[in-house]
Amino acid sequence: ADAVVGHSQGEIAAAVVAGALSLEDGARVVALRSRAIRALAGRGGMVSVPLSVDRVRELLPAGVSVAAVNGPSSVVVSGDPAGLDAVLASVERAKRIPVDYASHSAQVEEIREEILSVLEGLVPRESTVPFFSSVDVGWVDGSELDAGYWYRNLRQTVEFEGAVRSLIDAGHGAFVEVSAHPVLTVPIEETAGDVDADAAVLAVGTLRRGEGGMHRFWTSLGQAWAHGVDVDTAALYPGGRHVPLPTYPFQRDRYWLAPPSPEISTDAWRYRVTWRTGTPASQPLPATWLVVVPEGHHEDPWAAGAVRALTARGAQVVEHVVSADTDRERLAAALAEQPRPDGVLSLLALAEQPHPHHPGLTTGLALTTLLTQALGDARWAVPLWCLTQGATSAFGHGEVHHPAQAAVWGLGRVIGLEHPEFWGGLVDLPAEYDERSAATLCDVLADGGDEDQWAVRAGTARVRRLSRAQAEGTPARRAWRPNGTVLVTGATGAVGPYIARWLSGAGAGHLVLAGRRGADVPGAAELAAELAVSGTRLDHAVCDVTDREAVAGLVERLAADGTPVRVVVHAAALIQIASLAATSLTEFEDVVHAKTAGAVHLAELLPDLDAFVLFSSIAGVWGSGDHGAYAAANAFLDAYAEHLRGRGVPATSLAWGIWDTPNLAETAAMPGGLDMDRVRRQGLPFIAPDLAVTALQRAMDDDEAFLAVADVDWARFAPVFTSARPRPLLDEVPEVAALSRQEVPAVAPVTAALSEAELVTLVREQVAAVLGHADGDAIDPKRAFRDIGFDSLTAVELRNRLNAETGLRLPTTVVFDHPTVQAIARHLRAELTQETATRSVATAVAATDEPIALVAMSCRFPGGVDSPEELWELLRAGGDVISDFPSDRGWNLEDLYDPDPDKAGKSYVQHGGFLQAAGDFDPVFFGISPREAITMDPQQRLLLETAWEAFERAGIDPEDQRGSRAGVFIGTGYQGYGTNAEIPEGLQGQMVTGGSASVTSGRIAYTFGLEGPAVSVDTACSSSLVAMHLASQALRSGECSLALAGGVTVMANPEGFVGFSRQRGLAADGRCKAFADAADGMGMSEGVGMVLLERLSDARKNGHPVLAVVRGSAINQDGASNGLSAPNGLAQQRVIRQALANAGLRASEVDVVEAHGTGTSLGDPIEAQALLATYGQDREEPLWLGSVKSNLGHTQLASGVAGVMKMVLAMRHGVLPRTLHVDQPSSHVDWSAGEVELLTEEREWTGLRRAGVSSFGLS
Q1: How large is the average pLDDT for residues 1082-1098?
Q2: Mean pLDDT, to the nearest integer, of 281-298?
Q3: Which of 179, 504, 974, 1093 lies at a 20 to 30 A Cα distance from 642?
Q4: Helix (H, G, I), strand (E, B) or coil at 714
Q5: Domain shared by 575 and 515, yes or no
Q6: Based on the domain organization, do 986 and 1065 belong to the same domain?
Q7: How crowded is the C-beta side of 1154, counted as CA atoms within 13 Å?
C-alpha cells in the first residue's frame, strides 16, 4: 500500500498494517478499549443521516453531536437516546445504527482515565507505511499513536471525508477498503465526485457479506488491477510468472473471450402491448363499496358519476375524501373506523397536481401508495380497484390524454404482485364522462374473474395483453440514422458507453453525455478518444436533468454554440429495491422524480426533435415485486411516449430487461441491491449490451412508439409470475399458452408411503429447482427458507410444486408456517398419512413409568460461573461467591444499608451473590432488536442463552426443534425489572411482555419454535424443582418429546433485601450456614440453571448423552399448618416418601441428599428432622447431607436446579463436595435420631450413585 487511512476503530487495523503497532498491541487496544466502552452501554446510540454535515448541525438537538463525517451526504451522529429519536423523527431517511453506546461523543469523556490507564504501556513505533489520520486529518509518523491518540480516536469526530479529500489532493487515486463488506466505498465515491481531481478515483472493496472466501478476494484484486492498481501477484502465486500478451502496436489482436455475436436475432425479445375486446361476466355487484376520492375532486364528473352508477346498481356506497396532507398512519386509522366493505374503489389517481410535500410525485400517485400501505396495515382483504382517465392508448394511438395517471398503472401491477390478497385491478376510463361507460365500469367491478387490467370507452371494454412484436425476419420500415447533436442523459451510468458507441456507429457526429458528474467518471477520457477514431466528437456536460433550469441552460448553450440538440436519449434512472410496505414517500419520490422530471423537461424545452428515445423498463409493463416506484415511473414514460406521438413528437419508449453491464455484480452486492441469482432463477436472463443496442437500432428502424425488449425464459417466469393469481396479460405469449396446455401428470400414490427422510429429499429437490440449483444437495434442510433466498413469489412456487408432487392442496402460507425443509417434510408426512394424536397418546401410556434422562445442563451463577464445568471447579475448591452489592444496577447503595434491622426501607445486609454483567445480551443472535431487548427482563435474556447452550451441549441443533413438541418449564417470578426506571417513550408497551413472568417460558418457545407446553412456575424457592417435576410428567404422558426445565432469579432492585431485613431472615454476612450451629439466616443470591430432559429410551435412541436419570419426583403442600410461611416437618416427610415411592426406591438406597438448607435457625432443624425420620432410618451407611447454598447463597427460584446440577456433577466425578460454613452441626437437631451426617469434608463416591434433592417454597 502507498498509504493507509482508517475509520474509527479501523484506524487500529490501519496502524498494525502500517507497522506502527504490533499485532499484539493492536489486539490489546481493541480489547481493552472495547471493555471500557461497556460502561457506556445502554445510555446512548448512533444514527446515520444522509445529509451534509452543515445541514445536520442545524438539526441537532441537545445531547447529540456529529460522530463521523463520511462523505458529502453521509454523516453519523451520536448521543443520548431521546435526542437520537428526535433526529429520526425529523429526518425521514435517517437510520439507527445497532449499538447502545455513543462513540465519538461527550459521553466518552467518562472513560478517558480508564482508557489512558489500560493503554499506558503501549509502545508505538515509526510506521513503515505512511499513516493518514482521520482524527487529525494529517500524516502521522506512527510514534504518536499512543494511549492519548486512541482516546482521541474514540472521542473526536471521525473526519473521514476530510481525510479522503486530502489524500485525493495528494494524488491518491485508488482506495481499497479492507473490510468484511464495503461500507465506505460509496462515501469515498461521493467525496471524489465533489473534488476537482485530475483523474477518476477508484473505490473498491475486498470482501462482501456472504462472500468471505478467496474467490471474492481475488475478484476484488482483479477489479483493482483492471483499474490500474498494481497487484503483487508473486504473493498470491509463488513461483508463477507473468506471460506477456502480444498487444504491441503492430498486431492489434484482442486476447479476451468474445461476447455473443450481435448478428444473433433479437426478434424473440420484442413485445408489444395490445388490447382485446373484453366482456365482463354477468355477476351481481358486491353489496358495499368504499369510494376513496382525493380532496377537491369530489364533484369531478367521474367521481360523482361512479358513485351514482354504483348506487343505481343497488350497492351501498360510503365516500371517503382524502386530503393531500394525510399520511399512512392517519389513513390506516381512518380505514379502521370504517365498516369493512366488499370492495374499495380508488379515484385518487385523478389528482394530477404535485403533492404538497413531495412535488416529484402527483398527489394521486402519492395517495394511492399511502392507500395501499394503509390497506396492508389494516389487513383488509377486500379488492382494491384503481380508476384512471385517459391514461392508456387502448382504443388507438395518440389518445393518451393524461400520461401522469399512467404511473398508477405501473404501481397497480406491483400491488397485484405484492398484495394479491387485496388486489382488484385497474380500469382506465374515457377523459369525458358518459353513462354507458359508467354502467360498463359496474360490470367490470362485478366480473369477479381473473382480468385485472381494463379500459372502457363508450360502453365498450377492452383487456390488456402482451404479444410478440413481429415474426422473425420481418423487414424494417427504414434505416434510422441520428443527425446533428445527440443529447444522452444518464449516460454516466452503466449503459452510457454502450449507447454512445451505438450512436457513434449509427453516424452521430456530436454526442453530449449529460450527468451530475459530467466527465468525472471512470473511463470518460478513454471513451472520448475511442469515439474520436470513428469521427464522433464526445462532450460531457454537468447537468442534473431533474433541474429544469439546468436543462434549459444546457439546451441554450448548445444552441448558442451552433450545435442544437436534434435527438435525445433519456436513460437517467434511480433504482431502489424495497417492498411497498417498506417504502417511504420520500424514497418513492426519489425514484419516480429521477425518471419522470427529466423526460418532461426535455420534451417541453425541445419540442422540435428528430427523435426522443426514452429508456423504460419491463417493471412498468407487467410489474416487478419490490419495484413499486420504479414500475410507476416507467409506466409513465411508456404513456408519455404515446402522448407525445399524439402531438407529433417522434417519441419512442423502450421497456428493457436488465442489461448485463460490467458493474452489475458490484451494484447488486450493495445493501438493498438486486438479487441477481433470484432474477435468473425466475426466468429473466440478463441482456448482453451488444445485443441490446442491436434491438435498439431495430426499434428505431421500425419507428416504434413503444416496445418491450427482454430475454424471458417463459417456462420459468410464467409459473412464478402467475403463482399467486392468474395473469391473463400473458395469455397470448406462445410459450405461456403452450405451458397452460400441458397435461399435469397424475400424482404417484407412492408418496403416501414415503418416510420423513424421503420426504426431506423430495422437498430439497423442489427447493433446489425453485432456487435454480442443480440438485437438492445444495440445500441445507435445517436452514430457514428466508435465509436461503425465499420471498413471497418463490414461496408460492414451491407450494405449487409440492402440490403437484404430492396431490395435496397446501395453503400459500405453507413455507411461512413450516419454515425449513425438515419442517415441511414433517408436515407433508402428517398430511399424507393423516396422522393424529392417537399414536402419541398410545405411546405415552406405555411410558408413564419410564425414567427421565437428563441429557444436558447449562447455567450462570455468581462468581463468574458460566458453565457446569466452572460450577464444579468452584465446588471442588470450596469456593464462596458472596460479594458486595453490585454498583451497575442503579441501586442507591449509600442510602440502602443500615445495621439496624428495624430501620424501615433499609437492609442490614450489604452482601449477596450477584451475576456478573447480568445486563449483557446478544439480541441479534436471537433475532431481537436492541429496542426490544432493553425492555426484556434480564431473566428472559439469560434463559434464552442457557436454553441455546443446553441444546448445544446435548448435541442438538436448536433449529431441528422448530415445530417439534418440545416443552418449556421455567421457575420464574417478577424481580422488579423496570420498576423506578425511566422507560423511553414508545417502549412502554413492550415492557408488558418484557417484564412478565408468564411470558418467560413463552419467549423461549417462541424463539426456538417449540410447540409443546410452555409453563412458567412460581412457587418461590421450590420453583425450578416443581418445573422439573412438571416436565418429567409431561414427558411421561407424551405431552412433549423433549423438555427444557430450570429456574432463574436476577434481582433487578434491592427490595428483597429490604423485605427480608424486616423479618430478620438474612445472615448478617450474606452467607448461608446450612445446618450449622452458627446459622443466622439466609444469604440472598441469584442465578439461572437449565437442564434438558428426555425420556430415557428416546435419549438412547437419539444418541444423546445421559448425564443422570430422574427416577421419581413429588410435590405437595403443607395445608393448614402453623402459619402461611412456617415450614412443616410432617409435610416434608410426606413429600419425601411420595418421591421415593414414585421412583420405586427404598430410602436406604439413596446415598446423599442435596438439601434446601438455607441456614435459618428454624427451617434447617425442621428439614433435618424430616430427613432423619425418612432417609435416616433402617440403613447401615449414613445419609450424607449438604447444600450448594453454602457456596452460592440462596439463588431463590434457581436454587432447586442448582442442587440438581451439583448432584449430577458429583455423580459424574465420583466426589461429594463439602458444605461450607459449618462450625459444628446445629444443636437444634437431634442427630442421634437417625443415620444422617453433614458433608463437612469432601468424600469419594463410588458404586451405584443415587441422590435426592429437596427444595421448599415460601408458603
Answers
A1: 96
A2: 91
A3: 504
A4: helix
A5: yes
A6: yes
A7: 25
748 occurs within a structural domain: no
C-alpha cell at 525: 477520457
CA 440, distance to chain mean position in Å, is 46
Measure the CA–CA gap between 6 and 1044, rounded to whole angstroms.
47
pLDDT exceeds 70 at position 1122: no
Do 427 and 527 belong to one domain? no
Q: Mean pLDDT in the chain?
A: 88
Place of cell 422473425: 472
pTM of the model: 0.49
Q: Which tens digit of pLDDT belongs to each residue from 1197-1241?
A: 999 999 999 999 999 999 999 999 999 999 999 999 999 999 999
Q: Contact, 701 vs 478, CB < 8 A?
A: yes
Instruction: Band the pLDDT of 382: cuts 50, 70, 90.
Output: very high
Write down which residue in 172, 194, 222 finishes a domain: 172
Cβ atoms 32, 118 nearer than 8 A: yes
Q: What total of structural domains would you count in the chain?
A: 5
CATH code: domain of residue 313: 3.40.50.11460
First to last CA, the chain: 72
Phi, psi of 1088 (to 5 degrees): -145, 135
Confidence of residue 770 (pLDDT cuts 50, 70, 90): confident
- Burial profile 347-368: b = 16 or more Cβ within 10 angstroms, e = fewer: bbbbbbeebeebebbbbbbbbb
Strands 343-346 and 316-322, bridge-based pairing: unpaired
Q: Which residues contact 1027 (CB under 8 A, 6 or more apart)?
A: 969, 970, 971, 1015, 1017, 1045, 1046, 1047, 1201
Q: What is the pLDDT of residues 693-743, one digit of tens each?
A: 999 999 999 899 999 999 999 988 888 788 777 899 999 998 888 876 654
What is the CATH classification number for the domain harbouring 34?
Answer: 3.40.366.10
DSSP secondary structure string, 874-910?
A: HHHTT----EEPPSSS---HHHHB-S-TTSTT-BS--
Closest CA to 195 of 163, 224, 159: 163
CB 187 within 8 A of CB 193: no
Q: Residue 12: enclosing H or E segment and its boundaries?
A: helix 10-18
C-alpha cell at position 1143: 421412583
Cα distance between residue 18 and residue 9, in whole Å: 15
Residue 251 confidence (pLDDT): 32
C-alpha cell read off for 110: 467518562
807 grid coordinates: 396431490
Q: DSSP class of residue 984?
A: P
Are residues 877 and 995 located together in one domain of the fold? yes
Domain residues for the domain of 1171 are 852-1253
Band (673; pLDDT cuts 50, 70, 90): low
Cα 1207 vs. chain centroid, distance in angstroms? 43
CB 1152 within 8 A of CB 1185: yes
Per-residue pLDDT at 575: 86
Instruction: Name residue 888's amino acid.
Output: D
> Is there a contact between 818 and 798 (Cβ–Cβ < 8 Å)?
no
Higher pLDDT, 238 or 657: 657
Q: What is the CATH number of the domain that holds 652?
A: 3.40.50.720
Residue 800 CA to chain centroid, in angstroms? 26
Residues 820, 782 contacting (CB under 8 angstroms): yes
How far is 633 from 592, CA to CA, in rounded Å? 5
Q: Strands 288-294, 911-912: parallel, antiparallel or unpaired by DSSP?
A: unpaired
* pLDDT score for 746: 42
Angstrom distance (rounded) from CA 37 to CA 110: 10
* Better pLDDT: 547 or 1103: 547
Task: Tell me the one-letter amino acid at 597.
Answer: A
